[in-house]
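User: Run a structure prediction on this.
Assistant: Running it now.
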Amino acid sequence: MIQSRQYSVFLYLHYMSAEQLLSTSTKLPSKIPNRKKIIKTVTETQENVGDILANTREEIEKGVEIIVQACRKSGNPNIIGFGGDIEESQDINMKNKYGQTLLILAVWNNNIEIVQLLLSHPEILVNEKDKHGQTALMWAAKYENTSIMKLLLAHNNILVNEKDKYGQTALILAAGHNHTEITQILLNRPEILVNETDNKNNTALIWATSKNNFQLVQLLLNRPEILVNETDRNGFTALIWASEKGYSEITQLLLLNPCLELSVNNQGKKALELAKTPEIKKLILKKIQENQGSFSIFRFLAS
C-alpha cells in the first residue's frame, strides 16, 4: 500500500544507495518488537531488520528513533532492508515528527546519491524547514557537507538567506561551526547577506572571531559590505571578542580594517581594558596612535 511504502522510504534513505533504493523491496510485518531487542539483534548478529517495522504509518513513525539508534550503534548502515520506491511516492516533501523532510535526512547523512535523486524530482521543495526552522542547506552548512552544499546551491529554487527559529542563516551556521570551506562556497553567492544577525545579535564575523579562525575572519573581512562594528547582545564587537579571548592574530587583522571603531560593550568596557595579553594591548594602542595622535592616547586611557 502506497502510504506504508512512502514512509518506509522515509526511514531507510539514511542508509541506502540510490540503486538499492529503487530496486529492493521488503515486506513489513505488523508489530514493532521491543527497543532493546532490536538494538541487541542489530548489534550482535548484524541481522537484516528491515522486516521488523510495522506496516502502518503510525507505528512506523514510532520506530524511526529505534532504527536510527540501532544502525548507529551497530556501525553497519547496510543491515536495513528497504520497502519503497521514491518514484511511487505521493508526497516527495513528506515530513517526520521532527519536521524533517526526505531531503533533510539525506543531507544529514551525507548521502549524495539520494540528494541527487530528490533534487531531480520536479515537485521537490528544496527550502522546506524542520521544526527548528532549518532547511537542507542549513543542515549541509552545519555538517560541512561540501559536495551536497554545491548540489543544493545549483538548484534553481534555493534560498541562501533563510533563517531558522534562532535567527541563524546558513552562513552564520557555517561560521559558528568553524567551517571555512562551506563559508567560502556561500560567500561566492552574489545574493548572500554577510551581516545578518541571529537572535543573540551575533553576525557571521562575530562567530568566526569567537572560533579563533583566522582564515574564516579574513574571508568575511574581504567582503566590502562587511560591518566590523556590529555588536552582539552584550555589546561585544568582533574586536572586543578577539581582545578578551587573547586572539592576537585576529585582533591585528581586525585593526587593519579602515572602518573599525574602538567602541565599548554594555558594561562600558573597551577592547583595550579587556585585552587578555600585553601584545594585544600594544596592538590596540598602536591603532589609537595612528588614528588620533599621541595626545589622544592619554585622553582615551583616562576616559
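The radius of gyration is 25 Å.
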